[in-house]
Amino acid sequence: MEQILGNISLLFEFPVVNIKIILDGIMIGALFALAAYGLALVWGVMNVKNLAQGDFVIAGGYLAWWLANQGMPALLGVPVAFIIMWGIGWVVYKLVISRVIERDLFTSLLATFGLAIMIAQILNLLFGSDTQSIQLQYDTLYFLGGFVDIPIAKLIGVLLAAVLAAGVIIFMKTSRMGQAIRATAQDARAARVLGINTEKVYAFTFSLNSAICGAAGAIIVMVWVIQPFYGITYSIRAFVIVTAAGLGNLPGVIAAGLGIGTAELYGAHIFGIGYQQAVAVVLLLMVLLYRLIQQRRVRQSLQ
Amino acid sequence: MKTLPVLGAWLTGVFLLVSQAGYAQDCEEITLGSAISLTGKYATNGVHAKNGYEFAIQKIKENGGVKIGDKCYNFKVIYYDDESKGDRGATLAERLVNQDKVQYMLGPYSSGLTKAIAPVTEKYQIPMVEAEGASRSLFAQGYKYLFAVLSTSEQYLASAVTLAAEKAKESGKDPSDVKVAVAVENDPFSLDIRAGVFEDARRLGMQTVIDEKLPRDLSDMSAILTKVKLLKPDLLIVSGHSKGAATAVRQISEQKIDVPMIAITHCEAADVVGNFGAAANDILCSTQWAETLTYEDPIFGSAANYEKEFKAAFPEYADKSVPYQSAQASAAVYVFKDAFERAGTLDKEAVRDAIAATDLATFYGQIKFSTAGNNIAKPMVLRQIQDGEYNVVAPSEFASHKVNWPRKPQ
């Protein structure tokens, strides 16, 4: 308790710390938002809750790390991971997801849970269980007497994430495929009646999700560290964010991502870093409770 | 008929091996059992340990095997993969004892797995010499059949506290002026390290300014390092396995953390020098063993010789230093050899008593067990990364280099 109060008083004693926490939170949140964005797509369009979301992220990270070790420029890892993970996503869809998509919720949960375990173990067998990261040879910018530091590598990572998110939003709004995806999300049967090949839409959506995750992983490996079993942290955050923002609300997903990133870092500062993830989960609980109360008021039921 | 020359070469190889083994061929076998992590999160270190076991078995064979009375024996190990999971480890230990009728065990990797297996070996009164479980709590259960060749975890970074006190005195300050910041993972091993650090820090009257637990899936510790910047401790302790080491080294340099002394664990496992270069300079790393130490024994020769021969036997270690996890695994096998020879019998109880009475000089350091089963004769070593090299700086009787203090932010 004393320590918690001490930590809170630090925030007021050194107001500049707040700026540092918010900036760091936005940088983490941007990458959470990316993974959550892909999850929202798959969830909304196919009604598949992909528990392997975080493991796709880590797989993308390992791809980028491995390619960088083979001598490829590290930044190129982001588009390359996007493309390769697209292909892997497509294969996974054809092999696994397409078989469970019409089944009930439980089957698809089990299937993606199994997928998560498989991916983690395959990465472990291929690359070993040590943590890996790519160290970019960029400087760090310092502001406000050195208290606020922004490594240029992180800045590049966040910019790449923003470019990727913007690209996907524009694609969804303007392209034929984007329209087809949104139509399928609204009502798959009606979309089929109107001549949309929903099977193709599903395959495309899942591949796109996998590619977004891969690119996010390629950024994460440049900014933080990855390990074969880190997928679950990104899965949890993605679920929290999508639940908080709601499906089909892409700006909401981004806002929730940034918000959760910041809230987590405040939590880590005040309660200790061990409680960082707890903050995300408590936020999820609060959102669910709020939703429940809200729906009870309009006499609807949660299904 | 391309297979013929291949077959010929293979036969020649087998023949050479057999003839080389020569004398050893006449020896009988003693079967040891081990559940070890070959897959799962501990796979890397599990394989290091297994390689250490195998290397020692080979070396003992080359040196005439284990001599009990006028007979000679060679070790053979039955390995099972525990998948880095405690419940699996315990099941496999049961299987080794009940189905494979193993009478002697080598340890698994990690304190957690050792904790899971020790109750089983204890129940069946199977002597287990382990090399990879350092948690202090393992030796507070009153186990009679568990022996560990390595130093227990509370000693890992305690010497950094002593070193910080020495430096404070040198610069005309009192040790009680030293401010300590501790960030360790919330697992038995790291919590022991924390306990060891606090024990020494309290004795010297130091103040604790940060005491945080790192989450298991740590990839960002900027929140702690920001506090470090505000509270300006004189000693920063970080322990969180290889992810903790990697994250700490990277973010300490990103945030230009200026602390005179930084001590962490698992530098080698995280390859902080290879990954982060100059950012790792002047960081202190604890280790169980270093190849530059002056220990030696008749089987493995000096520590440096162990390093050389191990690399020859396992070429995949050629471009890195041999991890201490392998060295201590070899030492565990050596303890068994020594105990069997002193016991002069294959009787389980006699061997257990012989292990308990071990007082053995090895390339890995002196081995002598307390009544609780932990090794009390070997100190932990602190190395500092100086221009990319790991140099021993503490304790002073083993130091080959002077410590760089205060550390400059890189």
Describe this structure in words.
The complex is a heterodimer of chains A (303) and B (410). Chain A is mainly alpha-helical. Chain A has one domain (16-297): ABC transporter involved in vitamin B12 uptake, BtuC (Orthogonal Bundle). Chain A contains 12 helices and 2 strands; from the N terminus they run H-H-H-H-H-E-E-H-H-H-H-H-H-H. Chain A has helices at residues 2-13, 16-46, 53-69, 77-100, 105-127, 152-174, 176-186, 188-193, 198-223, 231-245, 250-271, 276-297; strands at residues 140-143, 148-151. In chain A, a hairpin with a 4-residue loop joins strand 1 and strand 2. Chain A is globular, with a radius of gyration of 20 Å. Chain A starts with a helix and ends in a 6-residue tail after the last helix. The model of chain A has no long low-confidence stretch (mean pLDDT 88). Chain B is α/β, with parallel strands linked by helices and 410 residues long. Chain B folds into 2 domains: 26-151 and 291-368, Rossmann fold, CATH 3.40.50.2300; 155-287 and 381-398, Rossmann fold. Helix content of chain B is 41%, strand content 20%. Chain B contains 13 helices and 17 strands. In chain B, the strands form 4 sheets. A 7-stranded mixed beta sheet of chain B has the order 8-7-9-10-11-16-17, sandwiched between helices. In chain B, strand 16 (381-386) and strand 17 form a beta hairpin. The longest helix of chain B has 20 residues, at 43-62. The radius of gyration of chain B is 22 Å and the shape is globular. The chains are: A mainly alpha (303), B alpha/beta (410). The A-B interface holds A 3, 7, 10, 13-14, 17, 20-21, 24, 28, 121, 124-125, 128-131, 133, 135, 140, 142, 146-147, 149, 151, 220, 224-230, 232-233, 265, 268-269, 272-274, 276-277 and B 39-44, 183, 186, 211-215, 217-224, 226-227, 229-230, 242-243, 246-247, 250, 254-256, 269-271, 275-277.
